[in-house]
Here is the input.
Amino acid sequence: MPKAAFAPASAPDTQEETPMNADTDALTAEFNSLVPPPVPLSRRGFLVTALGAGFALAVQPVMAQTAITTDSAGLAAGEIQVPTPDGNMPAYRAQPAQGSNFPVILVVQEIFGVHEYIKDTCRRLAKLGYQAIAPELYARQGDPRQYPDIPDILAKVVSKVPDSQVMADLDACVAWAKAHGGDTTRLGITGFCWGGRITWLYAAHNPGVKTGVAWYGRLSSPASEMTPKHPLDLAGKLNGPVLGLYGGEDPGIPLDTVEKMKKALADSANPASKASSIHVYPDAPHAFHADYRASYRKEAAEDGWQRMHAWFRQHGV
Here is the structure.
């Protein structure tokens, strides 16, 4: 499991009032032997300092009959630490084992964090010749993989993550890639669910983004302090063309908002926005690419993957 750091409460100073003796020393030693030593909270505020293994608790049991497993043969794949202004952020990186100057794809997680599905997606991209990086973007707020219920993940972790932090952390990943064999002049981004929304936002944030592919990311919601803008608000401000892949049977993303986004892109005077596109799979639900869940739709997922790769190549990534 990932390392979680918590600040232990400071004990009152009672040494003068309660002298220690052999009995209390022995009792304390026995107690300490039963409790794992606390990991001090980093002064930089990261609660998650390493990636865990396997799938998030909230999605188990996984659909083993459809879950795709991609090996790491021919790849350099594993955990990295990405420097940020307030400490190191854990991330997963996969790229070809030989060569350098690989085009870079940022892979943005669902609400479940960087669990096995996201890691496997990075390996699939690496097999296509990319340097794929998936940062643990909730690392300061908590570990979503440890919660058994989706409402708890949303309330206790996701709702506390500001968009501004996410944009800065993705910028930090780009800087890491540039220093570690990635060609950031060929920068793309893709993301799923929560990460699909972030894909749109980052394409509007970073002038260096060549293109992006957003998988069923929410397009519109009420503004808040944490999420002041949404993709529909930024439709005319994209730095690179984005392909949106959506399900016609997704109850969380009404088709009328998809149509509004299509119109906003088409009506924009911004070339990157106008060049963007949205494809809807009429019979697909939300999370149709998530091969480890019951929502997986093989035909739509495979077609979407092919469209994504073609889109990246079309736009120089």
Notes: The first helix runs from residue 22 to 34.
